[in-house]
Amino acid sequence: QVQLVESGGGSVQAGGTLTLSCVTSGYTASRYCMAWFRQAPGKEREGVASIDRSYSRTNADSVKGRFTISRSNDKNTLYLLMNSLQPEDTAIYYCAASLYGQCGSNPRPNNFAYWGQGTQVNVSS
């Protein structure tokens, strides 16, 4: 059974930093595309960043230069380092795991088979 467990969310002031983690079990993260999505109140779930089995990465335009996705194969864990956080980054952040080796240029939620429970990120001005 595949499980994804996120942690690392919280409340920070604008300009602050958070690192999200997503520990996987029953799944080999190094073989597949994984991603972070987020959903703010009243908005659709949007892709934030992705990484595939070859370490190719994508980032949403809104987070380029501020967020970095990475993966530890030894720990079977996905990370999202978030710098220079802004109030518009406030959302629930979800870890997602696919059964495809590549992510494509614009990963979409329906391409992912497994999801974590989400972790809340609040950024105040």
Q: How would you describe the overall organization of this protein?
A:
The strands form two sheets. Strands 2, 4, 5, 6, 9, 10 and 11 form a seven-stranded mixed beta sheet that branches. A four-stranded antiparallel beta sheet has the order 1-3-8-7, with no helix packed on it. It has strands at residues 3-7, 10-13, 18-25, 34-39, 46-51, 57-59, 67-72, 77-82, 91-97, 114-115, 119-124. The radius of gyration is 13 Å and the shape is globular. Strand 4 and strand 5 form a beta hairpin. By secondary structure, it is mostly beta strands.
Topology record:
Elements: E1 3-7, E2 10-13, E3 18-25, E4 34-39, E5 46-51, E6 57-59, E7 67-72, E8 77-82, E9 91-97, E10 114-115, E11 119-124
Parallel strand pairs: 2-11
Antiparallel strand pairs: 1-3, 3-8, 4-5, 4-9, 5-6, 7-8, 9-10, 9-11
